[in-house]
Amino acid sequence: MVKLSFEQRLNRRERLIGLLRSEDYWTSSLLRERLGVSQRTLMRDLAELREAGYPIDSERGRGGGVRLQGRWGIDRLQLSHQEVVELVLALAVAESMGSPLLTDNLQSLRQKLFQAFPQEQRRRVSSIRKRILLGESAADHIASAYKAPGKKVSEAISEAFLQQRCLEIEYQSEAKGKTRRVIEAHYILLVWPIWYILAWDHLRDAPRVFRTDRVRTTRQIDNSFKLRPKDLYVDQYTPLMQSI
């Protein structure tokens, strides 16, 4: 019975959110009629939605009135793998800025966004965030020579990073020499505006750092990999962090 009661409440909440999104304004009496609940139950459900972060306004008085500001919400939002990576990256970059205009709300925003994912995906999304390392900004002479990689290369790197799949790349070194190698994209590092891949390099059988703008071509490989400890890459990325 407890499980059934919980499912009924969850169902009712979903219906209430749907009703609020469907119209700019509702009277509480009409909401009660549509949901088949008492005024007390309706007020309790609205209070729970407010606590969950929904921007709900209500007016007291005869008839009452309820509206969802902007009819916001993400419960039905479906994201692709690429969009998940970009969302997590965007939040991570924003958090790293340390702006007083942003940081007071970003942690709360991140938590609410993650809560919108199905429960089985939350741990995975959280683990992705931990694999994103952030510096501040590259030296001017380094940043000025940076040119963002093409869309296909960026998407292939993101997909390999997210899915923990091996990736074959053609890589051009600083000296313009080209090599073809298979890598495991374990972590990514942003030293603004340059993105680096902290990877296990099968060619060298050792940890290596690759600049994304020097990746010329990519080819997805079916082989998956297990995440290696970040400590393996300390010697690789610490100099980059120190040279910011």
Quick description:
Helices cover 45% and strands 25% of the residues. It has 244 residues and is α+β, with helices and mostly antiparallel strands.
Q: What is the overall pLDDT average?
A: 81
Describe the main β-sheet briefly: 6 strands, mixed
Q: Helix count, per DSSP?
A: 9
User: What's the gyration radius in Å?
Assistant: 24 Å
Note the run of SSEs as H and E.
HHHEEHHHEHHEEEEEH
The N- and C-terminal alpha carbons lie at a distance of 59 Å
Instruction: List segments where confidence is low: pLDDT < 50 over at least 5 consecutive residues.
Output: none
**Percent in helix:** 40-55%
Q: Estimate the strand proportion.
A: 25-35%
Question: Helices and strands: which structural class?
Answer: alpha+beta
C-alpha geometry: elongated
**Total domain units:** 3
Count of distinct strands = 8
How would you characterize this protein structure?
The protein is built from nine helices and eight strands. The chain is an alpha+beta fold and 244 residues long. It folds into three domains: 2-71, Orthogonal Bundle (Arc Repressor Mutant, subunit A); 81-130, no CATH class; 137-242, no CATH class. The strands form two sheets. Strands 3, 4, 5, 6, 7 and 8 form a six-stranded mixed sheet that branches. Strands 1-2 form a two-stranded antiparallel ribbon. Helix 4 (81-97) packs antiparallel against helix 5 (103-115). The N and C termini lie far apart (59 Å).
